[in-house]
Amino acid sequence: MFEVLQAYLAEFTYAGIFLVLFLCGLGLPVPEDVPILVSGYLSHLGTIRPWPALAVNLTGILIGDLMIYSFGYWMGPRAVQHRLLRLVMTRRRMDKVNRFFGRHGKKAIFFGRFVTGLRAPIFLAAGIARVPPRTFILMDGAAALISVPLLFSLAYFFGENLDAMREFLGSTKRTLLLLAAVGALLWLGGRLVRRWREKGIPAA
Question: Which structural domain range is residue 14 located in?
Answer without folding.
Answer: 2-158
